[in-house]
Structures are given as C-alpha cells and as structure tokens.
Amino acid sequence: THGQHKGEVKAEDGCLVVDGHKITVFNEMKPENIPWSKAGAEYIVESTGVFTTIEKASAHFQGGAKKVIISAPSADAPMFVCGVNLEKYSKDMKVVSNASCTTNCLAPVAKVLHENFEIVEGLMTTVHAVTATQKTVDGPSAKDWRGGRGAAQNIIPSSTG
C-alpha cells in the first residue's frame, strides 16, 4: 500500500527485527500460553476477533498481561471510544473494548453533531476493506448469499459493528 520498505527486515532468535528493533513474536493459538511477562508486555491488544468477552480475553492474564484491550465490540466488556466516553474509564478496569472500527469512525463526529445540532435519526454507510472472513473467489457462505461473493471483485452489502 505504501511501497516497499527501504530498511532491513529479518527473523532472528525468535524475533522479527525491523531496522535493528527487535519485536518478540509468538505462534500460539491459546492466549493463556503466551508468555507476555517474559516478553515484557503488560498491555495487550486482543485483535484476533476470537476472544471478545471478558472471560475469553482474561486468558491473557495467565501469561502475565496486566490489561487487555479488545479491538472489537464485546458482549460484556465496557466499550470506550476516544472523544466520546473515555471519561467513564477507570484504572481498575482490566479488560475493555475499543468498540468497532465503524463506531470509532462515526461516534466522535456524531457526538459533535448531536451536541451542537441534535441528531434525531440517521443512516450511515461504511466502505470497508476486504476482511479475513470474506471469500477471495465466489463460493458458498453459511451467513448469507452475499457473503459468498468474491470480495475483490464485488461491493458486498453487510452489517457491521
């Protein structure tokens, strides 16, 4: 998207090294098995889209995480959007959600509009890049027939967070 990286990228001793900066990487499906404390990581961004409840995201604590931020909507974790409701956050919260990318795009603007002009009703459209759950070529979809269309060749209407 932004052209070829001009620096050096290599794998070395279980780390990804980018321009001399070592980044520890893990190959682990279960968050409770990731040794966060060994890597010096305290604040974890849970962005798999799988561990989106407090119970599931809390598995990161077994590896030494201190706090977990879920990068998707959550059924039970408190959700925060910067510029909208961050004042409700308290330091004792260990697992929080940063809501969805759609919410983070719309909510700050909607808040300003509502506070200054009052929004009574509204509609919005999101144009989103291809996601990991979309098909690369046409095929069957368990969700709905639109979800089976090849994502790179079609604009596919879908619900979003």
TrEMBL record:
Gene Ontology CC entries for this record: cytoskeleton; cytosol; nucleus
Domain Glyceraldehyde 3-phosphate dehydrogenase NAD(P) binding span(s) in chain numbering: 1-101
Record region (Disordered): 138-161
Subcellular location: Cytoplasm, Cytoskeleton; Cytoplasm, Cytosol; Nucleus
Pathway: Carbohydrate degradation; glycolysis
Pfam families (UniProt xref): Gp_dh_C (PF02800), Gp_dh_N (PF00044)
SMART domains in alphabetical order: Gp_dh_N
CDD domains to which the protein is assigned, alphabetical: GAPDH_I_N (cd05214)
One GO MF term attached to the UniProt entry: NAD binding
Keyword Transcription annotated: no
Keywords assigned by UniProt, alphabetized: Apoptosis, Cytoplasm, Cytoskeleton, Glycolysis, NAD, Nucleus, Oxidoreductase, S-nitrosylation, Transferase
Reactions listed under catalytic activity: D-glyceraldehyde 3-phosphate + phosphate + NAD(+) = (2R)-3-phospho-glyceroyl phosphate + NADH + H(+)
Keyword Oxidoreductase included in the entry's annotation: yes
The family this protein is said to belong to: Belongs to the glyceraldehyde-3-phosphate dehydrogenase family.
Assembly and oligomerization: Homotetramer.
Name assigned to this protein: Glyceraldehyde 3-phosphate dehydrogenase
